[in-house]
Amino acid sequence: MLDTTNFVRIKLEQSNERFPSWDKDGKRVVFQSSGKGYSQLFLYDLLKDTLVQITTGETNKSHPVFIPNENSIAFDASISHEVYLFKIDPSTGKQELLIHRDLQCETPSFSPSGRLMVFKGYDINNETWQLFSYDFVYGNLNQLTHLKNSELLMPVLSPDGKTILFGTRDK
Length: 171
What we know:
By secondary structure, the protein is mainly β. It is built from no helices and 14 strands.
């Protein structure tokens, strides 16, 4: 049974917290917050009861998820009105592009090994968001859907990495 008597508010300022994601051990949670201008990422450590802002700057960061088998968090960020995937090491603050392709992308989701990622990518030819996968071992990028009159929303890999769940909306 879920104990609902001991709720803890981890961020005291009024803001818009979204897209929480747990690490595999359930000891940390990363989330997006847009209380003061641009959306930034925050990391809460349940054991230490600490909250740390892990990104800064004048770009929106969103959809954070822990990368399996790494001490990194993947997220998307806007650059000149285009969206790309990045990763950050929360202990050092070092950020880098997650994949080096000329493709707008957002909402990453990983297989349990971290080898495969699915995400939303922008198909320039159809002018719509589609489902893509990227294999980090071989560097393979594949477009998995070719939707014509709708766009893809929030792809998520199942915990065993065998099924992809996503939504669509009419254009």
